[in-house]
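re: ur question from earlier - yeah i can do the single chain one, its not a big deal. heres the input i used so u can compare w yours
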Amino acid sequence: MSIVEIVLLLGFLLSFLMAIALGGNDAATPTDCVVGARILTIKKAILLFAIFTAIGALSQGFMVMKTIGTGIVPSIDLLGAIIIVLSAFTWIMFCNFYGLEISVTHSVVGSVLGYGMACYGTGGIRWDLIHMVIISWFSSPLLAIFLAFLLYKLLASTIEKFNSLGNAMPYALILALCYSAYAFGANDISNSTGVYVTVTKIVLGNPPEYNVMILLAAFGSLGVAVGGFLLGPKVIETVAFKIIRLSILGATSAELSNALTVHLFTTLSYFFFGYGMPISTSLASVGALVGVGLASYGTSGINRRTVTILSMGWVATVFVTALLSYALYSLLFPYVGPIVG
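and the output i got, formated as tokens:
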């Protein structure tokens, strides 16, 4: 086995670990509401999360994978792919250890930016696409807040008129979890494997890019499932119980709003612009929780300290991972070159 093959295997192993970290940190995104409302146990919620995340990743994951792999920068060589994943993985695991739900999307996009600056300079980065991504980061939680507030009021009014509908809410919440996990898989699977699109195409003899993305989506889905079961419970508890007190009605409204927001930014942006937006599903989820809190309790129902800490972590993530990725690539490239790419 050649040195290149050994490095490639190590890179894919690191990518699998990244998928585990993704599952551990973001299992909370689709499951926080159903657990917070005490409809399902954490283990049962994670099982549904794993199944429907894989379905979403395999059917629509290519939309955002294209953005991460060949959109922000022209291509990513093997050294760059390893450094991007290593930078993001290190930061994510640090935050997982402290039970802080940072944005994995911010981690990966920040790392890709750092790599792009080191490899191509400012002229090699698609700044128009970066601007669209940043706009989506701000607008997605606002949309989630609006949808959650509106859905809560609408569902509350409907149940007040038709009391029998209240009995169906637990089932509606479970279906919302499944839809949210599907949307998560479609948007976030790119965070674990998207940077390997170029390298995988080269290694496999340049097959169609879509086929490569499906293969990477399946590989990432397995790691996400492992991470959800091993690392997810601690973060789920943070988001499910420490932001607002959730009723079944509130949880259903929040989960549907989160799922709609993520799915819209994945699908519509791909059809209109050719690139699915890698939004933070974490921001969308917390935004939906805030919207429900405003609708049900007013401002007094929201734990502002928890939201503030989470927000600071999201902002810091981009700068930390970009700096780490830039420094590592700049340091190693003169000695080892791109390896493959």
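The chain has a mean pLDDT of 88. not sure if urs matches, ping me
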